[in-house]
Amino acid sequence: MQRAIGRRVTLAVATAITAAAAAAVPQAAHAAGTYSLLVLPDQGESAIYNFINSATSSIDVTMYELRDTTVTTDLVNKQKAGVKVRVILDGKQTSVNSAAFSALQSGGVSVEYSSTAFVYTHQKTITVDGAESYISTGNLDTTYYSTSRDYGVFDTNPADVSAVEQVFNADFAKTSITPSDGADLVWSPTDSQTQLLNLVNGAQRSLDVEEEEFGDTALVNAVVADAQRGVAVRVVAENQSNSYTTQLNQVTAAGGQVKTYTSSTGYYIHAKAIVADYGTSTAKVFQGSENFSDNSLNHNRELGLIVSDSGVISGIESAFNADFGSSGTTGGGGCTAAQLLGNPGFETGTAAPWSTGSSVISNSSSEPPHSGSYDAWLDGYGSTHTDTLSQAVKLPTGCSNYNFSFWLHIDTAETSTTTAYDTLKVQVLNSSGTVLGTLATYSNLNHNTGYTQHSFSLASYAGQTVTLKFTGAEDFEYQTSFVIDDTAVDVS
What's the CA gap between 438 and 11, in Å, rounded? Predict the structure, then answer.
């Protein structure tokens, strides 16, 4: 970022402090950049096309439905350019896949229909150069692109990619294999039901489920049990012809919330995803090809993954919130447990829906985030300067808890142990901009080597729309940086 170039010039010990901060920050399971989320239809398929065309040595594709002529043409062109291209298509979907199968075969691509050992090969995966795999909930079928909710994750974890390739080789040759889960993988028919049950049963605070099919008894019972023991459960489901009304009614009867979609021609929930304990340090997300059905979990070839990557979690949670909207049915109680802030960890790389000045949202290694890749870096110039960061939030009525929290790191070139030269105020404002209260004031005197979490009750503002505002102000010399990450307003 342009702003970061001029920062830190007055702090000679930047490297030491950065190292100390990094040591103090809880580390994600994998390094930043291992996973990259694609949200569909919002972001479009260009990233998939670019991924295929980035190949220099090999492309391996396993796909339930392939009816995208751009993909087919790209694969043929890559084969002709000397890239080794292999494709597995589901053998029962010949009415959909036959045109692609013929085009690939004519173009010299090694293409096979799937093994009859599985009811369906429902997996949706592309691996390029044996180094990166795209694992998706969505097919490569242009018929549905514009109206289907789907997710995909680009995964560079070597253990994951190696396992995906080992299974591809076996499935391509139609030989049996017990798949390795690598670091994060969820395979059918070997262990997907067990892994998804563990994820659901392990939820402590919240569980958001988005599924095309919602019929597996064991998983439905686990979701219901979560709601009964006080976990805030929300479900977004495709429910054409009331196929899953009985199961969804069990969720609402237990106190969960449900939003259904029912149009085969309009917006369609094709995604398969679970977010557990969003906004906590133990949050995890599943996304993949596995539906809540016996075939999908126990008889098909399927692939998904479960990760704790904050970017994937926040991206899927944001899309889930959009799909859930405000019209979910509830099983009782006046409060819906939720995290209310948008872009709470700044992982979109932009501010919205936060309001802030330029260059506050940062991914500079000089001030590493608490988690993920981005944070909000206020001040740090060593000259008279003010930065602000704010977001309006509507607080519901009827909740017992209204908790506003954030992680804060402060470093400074100031040497005084008694004078607060540079300050950060955390305030609550009304819709007119009047300050209703100051929650805290921090300064150069509060500098620390890592991040500290701060929490405040907003119960006194229940029922109001308030603005939460951070204001960082520096005097004329010696920088102080106020770095904020992983914000949340949790109500329950």
Answer: 30
What backbone phi and psi angles, to 5 degrees, belong to 222?
-70, -40
Q: Which residues pair with 378 in a beta bridge?
A: 482
Nearest to 336 by CA among 261, 248, 231: 231
Tokens of 293: 């059905």
DSSP run (H or E) holding 104: helix 94-106
Query: Which residues are CB-neighbours of 276 under 8 A, at least 6 positions away?
Result: 199, 200, 202, 203, 206, 207, 208, 283, 284, 285
> Could you report the average pLDDT of every consecutive run of 10 residues in the chain (492 residues)?
33 32 30 79 93 97 98 98 98 96 98 98 98 97 94 96 98 98 97 97 95 97 94 93 94 92 87 94 96 97 96 92 67 62 87 89 94 95 96 85 94 96 96 91 95 93 91 96 95 81
CA–CA dist 101, 112 (Å, integer): 8
Angle between helices 94-106 and 69-80 in degrees, nearest 10 = 30
* Residue 212, CA distances (Å) to 11, 23, 235, 290 in order: 53, 42, 11, 9
| Measured distance CA(474)–CA(235) in Å, rounded | 46
To which H or E segment does residue 318 belong?
helix 310-324
Structural tokens at position 323: 């799909």
